[in-house]
Amino acid sequence: MALVNSKKMFEQAYKNGYAIGAFNVNNMEIVQGITEACKEEKAPVILQVSKGARAYANHTYLVKLVEAAVIECPDIPVVLHLDHGPDFDTCKSCIDGGFTSVMIDYSSHPLEENIEETAKVVEYAHKYGVSVEGELGTLAGIEDEVSHAVGSYTRPEDVEKFVKGTGVDSLAIAIGTSHGGYKFKPEQCTVNEQGILVPPALRFDILKEVSKRLPNFPIVLHGSSSVPQNYVKMVNENGGKMPNAIGVPEEQLREAARLAVCKINIDSDLRLAMTGTIRQFFNEHPDKFDPREYLKPARANIKELVRHKLVDVLGCAGKADECK
Ligand code: G3H
Ligand code: 13P
Ligand code: ZN
C-alpha cells in the first residue's frame, strides 16, 4: 500500500491501548532493519526524518529509501514523518516532497507564537491530507538540533487552547523524557538492590490531566529511548566511553502506550545498537574493511531491537491490518 497519514493509526492505537513506534531513519540499513521487523511482526510504523537527517542523507534519498521499504513491505501501513520541523518552510518542503505527516516544533517559542506557526502549517498540510504534530513543553536533552538545556513540563492548562487554536492532529508533551543517550544524571536516580540506577518516574499525573482535557486525542512522547544496557556495555567493552548512559524504563513506556500516548519516538536506541555492533565487529575482526560485513550485523541487531519494541513495549505487533 502507498504511504499513509497517521489518522487511522492513531484512532486504532488510542482505542486499543497501544502506541505506534516512530523510528528515526538516516540511511538504508536503518530503514531496512526497522521495516523488516515491522513486516515480520505485522506492525504499522512511522519512519521519521529530522532536519539533521535531511542535511546528512538528502531529502530525495530518504524519501526513495522509504518508498523502497513500502514496496518491500506492501502489507503494513507506513507513515513518512518530518521530526522536529523547525519552521513553516521546512514543513512545506516536506509536504510538497512526499511526506505524509509533519511535526512543527515551535515549543521553545512563547505559546501565542507556537499557536500561530503551528496553525499555519496545519492549514497548508490539511489541504494535502498530511497529518500535523505540534508540541507544548520542552524536553531536556543533549541532542544537537533539538536541545534545550533545561526542560519544562507541559502545562495542562495550555493544551485545549493550543489544540483548538491550531487544529493539530496530535500533541507532543513533556513529562520527563528527554532526547539522547544520557537522559538522567546519576544524582537524579535512586539505586536498587542490584546496585542499578533507577531513573525518576515519568509524570503520569501530567499525562492523565492532559488526556482528561483532550478526550480521545493522540499524545506523542519524544525522547523515549530506553538506552539498553547490553548495548552500552558493548560500546564500553569495545573502545567506547559512555559513562552513565541511562534511558526511560520500558515498563513506563508500556504504561504510557496503554493511556493516551499513541506515538513513541525512538532514535538513540537504534544508534546505540548500530554503534555497539560495529565497535564489537571491528574489535573482533581488525583485518576486515568491507562495510557490508559490519553493516550486516548492525542492521540485524537494529531489526531485533525494533522487534522487541513492537512486541514488548509499544504493543503494536499484529496491528497492521486494523490500521489500514
Ligand atoms: O529528536 C531528535 C532525533 O533523535 C533526531 O536527532 O537531529 O541528530 O537527527 P538528529
Ligand atoms: P531518543 O533520543 O530518546 O531516541 O528520542 C528520539 C526522538 O524523540 C526523536 O524525535
Ligand atoms: Zn524528538
| Class computed from helices, strands and strand pairing | alpha/beta
Summed up, the helix count is 12
Total strand segments: 10
Using the CA coordinates, give the radius of gyration: 19 Å
Q: What is the CATH homology-level superfamily?
A: Aldolase class I
Widest beta sheet: strand line-up: 1-2-3-4-5-6-9-10
Distance between the termini: 9 Å
CATH architecture assignment: Alpha-Beta Barrel
- The portion of residues forming beta strands comes to 5-15%
Summarize the biggest pleated sheet.
8 strands, parallel, barrel
User: Which spans have pLDDT < 50 for at least 5 consecutive residues?
Assistant: none
Task: Chart the SSEs and their pairings.
Blueprint: H1 7-16, E1 20-24, H2 28-41, E2 45-50, H3 51-57, H4 59-72, E3 78-85, H5 88-96, E4 101-104, H6 111-127, E5 131-136, H7 156-166, E6 170-173, E7 190-191, E8 197-198, H8 204-213, E9 219-221, H9 229-237, H10 250-258, E10 261-266, H11 268-284, H12 291-314
Helix pairs in contact: 2-4, 2-12, 3-4, 5-6, 6-7, 7-8, 9-11, 11-12
Bound molecules: glyceraldehyde-3-phosphate, 1,3-dihydroxyacetonephosphate and zinc ion (ZN).
Brief descriptors of the model:
binds glyceraldehyde-3-phosphate; two-stranded antiparallel sheet; alpha/beta; globular; binds zinc ion; binds 1,3-dihydroxyacetonephosphate; 10 strands; TIM Barrel; 324 residues; eight-stranded parallel β-barrel
